[in-house]
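Input chain follows. Return structure tokens only.
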Amino acid sequence: MAELLIIPPLILGAIIGLYELILVHQDENFRGSHWFSHGLHSAGWAIIAVFATMNAEFVYENLTFLEGIPFLNNILVFRVAIGLITVLKVHAASAVVKSTIGTASKGLKETWAQKKHGHIVSLLEL
């Protein structure tokens, strides 16, 4: 039976979520934006992703269907997949926000290479 970690993933996930919340505020810092509501989903996902990566063995024991999915039968690949999902989530979340005048606001609609904070957050979650 795999050991279940609860407190360390919650603390580390909250720290990473707070970091991403600060970055979302910097990206969406314009009048009338809803940066806090956009940032809350980031904090929630960070906690879930860190919990899943730190308890990967526990997740595999309880979600046995993951072993049947090609390429996900390796725990390391599972952890990397969570990181890639995080990069996609951060990029998609910043691409959907429009300013009040209908154009992309400061810091949004960046290319994949410019989305440094998305890569940093996903690496922290591994």
